[in-house]
Amino acid sequence: MIKYFSNNEPFVLVLIPLLVAGHLVLDIYFPSFEMLAVGQENLWDFDFKLIPALYARTGAFVFVCLNAFLINYVFNTHEFYERNNYLPSLIYILLVFLFPMSLRLGEDLIGHTFFILSINKLFDIKQNEDARHMTFLSGLFIGLAITFLPVYIYFILFIWLGTLTIRPFVLRETLLPLFGAIIPLMWIWLIDQHFYQSFIEFDSSLDYSKFGNILIFIPHVIVLLLIIVANKNIIDRRAKSSIRYKRILGLVIYTLLYSILVGGVILAFFETYFYFTIGAVILSIILPYAYLGSKHKWFPAGLLYLLLILNVVKFLY
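User: That's the sequence. What structure does it adopt?
Assistant: Structure tokens below.
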């Protein structure tokens, strides 16, 4: 299966909805994983837990598939590899399946959608072209992501860094992302004038205690090994790539490190793994290199299959 996703074979994308549907069916028969997440952080004051189970599962199905396809669109459109491949979609769902947000529609999945749209617009920026339109839309999308998961407020720095990495400094292009992000927050102010408190309060949590190391230690080791292999292949690829590719790939790596830093700081001070979900999008761009550039493909393929097995075993634990 991994081999087919790594080739330019668009038909394999039909497997994404099937895998997501299968995951949801397992949840129906073995509903032991869905209640591990606690907390509601969206600034719209909407309780996603009030959505009936059928509609919540349907919404999760739609957004998991949509995000998987969007991240693959970003990967192929911006030519992160010399030919189209569909590993980012597969890796995204394997990572998201590790979290309860894959089973019920919630602010996490919607936040992912707007975050993907934001980085897509950022990657659209060209060195010698006016970037006002792209920077504004990137800020607008990150602003919408903030309204569903406030932790994305800190990724406005990522937009500024990305713009300055690709383009020379232009004051309007630096300010427009901020204006774009403020627009959704102005609507939030009409609902709650104290919404800014959510930027320093992190109340959501995940309780994986009954799984022991299965969903904490083992997945982290797998992802870390994939990152190490991917990093070696990325270094080799950057040495013979265009300047633009080096810049946007460097931006992706920075964003991954930033995601880990944010998740790690919140874990240290608030004792919750919940916010590591924000790294799933960026990992879906980086981890395909563990397989695509590897001479010994059995190793990264085996790790990805192990992730798939863990996502089934968790229902039976």
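The mean pLDDT is 85.
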